[in-house]
Predict the 3D structure of the following.
Amino acid sequence: MTRRSARARRDRRARLRAGPALRASGRLLARVSGRLRRVAGQAVSASVTTTDPAARPLPPRRPAAPGSARHRFGTSPGLPVLAIAALMVLIVAMLGVEQVTGMSLLPDRLSAGLRPPPKKFPVLPASHPTSLAIEKIDVRAPVHDVGIAPDGTIAVPDAARAQEAGWYDQGPTPGQYGPAVIVGHVDTTSGPAVFHKLRELRSGDEIEVTRTDQRVAVFEVNSVEKFDKGRLPVDEVYGDFSRPSLRLITCGGQWVGGETGYADNVVVFASLVKARSGG
């Protein structure tokens, strides 16, 4: 037997041994990709907007010819798995860059739930707020409870108490999980009110809320936003219970008069970063 024929026989035996392993790997990837496609299909169908019941139904879709998808995409069952794996590697890499550089590379909606909280935070038991201090804009004001106004909105302090802030007593107290809401006037007919300079706050500024238990909850400003009063994003303002947070709300924008007053609301978004004893 020649060396060439012996080598050919060894190669043939190696291919025969590898065949079952390759076929098993192919079946495993096919099952994984099938599950991923089913999950993706459920996610898409769950997000489709309900159509008008009076609208005529769409004509039935023609079934695809056998083998057409295989002709377009090839026979490799691992392509969806590789694509998703590559996307996850990219997201993890971008999160790593954010941690090192502090630069935000991912859209907030995409990375919701992926980024860790900006800082470790305490969680405090329920205790009503009594006062508010914001050194950056020279605010030191008493805080009293407010409820719901007759029109269903959060009530605001009476005009006679325009230099005080009002804590919405149907929500969390400052330091509990969820957004504690404190409202105040921006001005009155006689001059500036307690939250006149609220729009001047910037990310990183601190807000201190003293409570009846003599604890001081210290919040750090995340952002200051302005929203049309008729299109206030309720979930964004009131719906985040992932950590203790604070919302300071006042009026802003253009004066339109009537029952509306100012056209917009100025909302400060802040997160609890620490707590200390008062006194």
